[in-house]
Amino acid sequence: MPRVRRTAAVLAVVLAAAACTSDGDTGPSQRTGADGGPALLGTVDLDAAVGGDARLLDLAAPPGGDPVALLGDGGTRGWLVRVGSGGDGPMATTLLELPAVGDDAELTVLADGSFLVATTSPTTGYQLLTVRPDGQATVTALGVRPERAATALSPDDRTLYAALALPDAGPAQLLAVDLAAGVVSRTAPVVPEGTVTALAARPDGGLAALVDSGGRALLASYGADLRPVGEPVDLAPDAPVGVPADVDVTAEGTVVATAHVSDGRELGRLVTVVDGAVATSVELDGVGDSALAVVVSPDGGTAWVPQADLSFPAELVAIDLAGGQRVSAVPLCAGAAVLGDVAPLDGDAGLVATGSCVDGDGPQATAFLVG
Q1: Is the residue at 165 inside a domain?
Q2: For this UniProt entry, which residues form the secretion signal (predicted)?
């Protein structure tokens, strides 16, 4: 991999006024469901927050802050929108306007408040756009044009790891990018061969990668040097297919991963892996219209997964990781829905899920606040 080209420029960003919307049916005072568990606090129309139709591309949870959504219009513009609870209920605040970002864009919020967007530019290929809160921007171009990409940030904020599937270029590649220097410091092939759908940093400095390898959902582990550690773990060896979806890692190093495990995607599975072996496996029914995003609670005891399918309710489900039981479910839509990401609110105040309810008004990019 050649040295990365790194240029600095001032990005023309717009600090927009706050845009707030609420469904008016629920509010911060309704914090528990009928069973004493969490409930839907309200929804935010993210299209309205940016003044038009937008695609919801990613959701990131900054250290000590509310989640930030990355949206794009599919052509010329992008936005960063903070989602949280205000005095009058759920709200969305547009933070910055960005140049166009690709549909593969992934967002990370650094500890200093900077935003890091990894995306494929139509002109320069795969690049890292770092935007400080004051609008100063740096572009790090990697000189490649991947068919698919997944990223993860090291615990010390110094290294961005990327797994890139390159067209006609042999095995997919793992890259370690030194963010301060703007160079690729290490590269390695993805082992086993396949496409990495999700990456997560481990507390020990290594990586957990979900690999789609010949119709199997595999969990691969790597050290900080990008060398494989141990053998890959098949997340669903008894299923006819395995399509890996998302991964998170607890503070103790337990890997929590999700996968679709049926030809029609309606069946899913949540798996925990400890010391290279499956510890817990939980079946998820009715998830064909869910990205099966997963986020683990701060104490590492619970995983949250949005699930939706045409014949099933759209819900945010909590699963006890020790026993594998479903401990609560929060309804998000009255009917069908398509659900994507999930991220925690600041101060363990709840969660934000993203997606669209399918109703008479048509699909809208929506943030669902649960607490």
Answers
A1: no
A2: 1-21
Same domain as 260, residue 140: no
Residues 133 and 254 in one domain: no
Please check whether residue 71 lies inside any domain of the structure. Answer: yes
How far is 61 from 95, CA to CA, in rounded Å?
15
Say if residue 241 is in the same domain as residue 365. Answer: yes
Number of domains in the chain: 2
Q: Which of 93, 128, 145 is the C-terminal boundary of a domain?
A: 145
Statement to judge: residues 239 and 356 lie in one domain: yes
**Minimal CA–CA distance to 243: which of 217, 213, 282, 281?**
217
Alpha carbon distance 237, 3 (integer Å): 40
Each residue's pLDDT tens digit, 287-338: 999 999 999 999 999 999 999 998 888 999 999 999 999 999 999 998 889 9
**Is residue 22 assigned to a domain?**
no
Q: Which residues pair with 107 in a beta bridge?
A: 117
Per-residue pLDDT tens digits for 167-195: 876 789 999 999 999 999 999 999 999 99
Kindly provide the b/e burial profile for residues 107-118, where b requires at least 16 CB atoms within 10 angstroms of the residue's own CB: bbbbeeebbbbb
Residue ranges making up the domain that contains 88: 39-145
Q: Does 306 reside within a domain? A: yes
Which pTM was predicted? 0.88
Q: CA 135, CA 15: separation in Å to the nearest integer?
A: 9
Q: Is 161 exposed, middle or buried (0-12, 13-18, 19+ CB in 10 A)?
A: buried
**Domain boundary, last residue among 97, 119, 145:** 145
Contact 80, 129 (CB under 8 A): no
State both tokens at 169. 């270029």
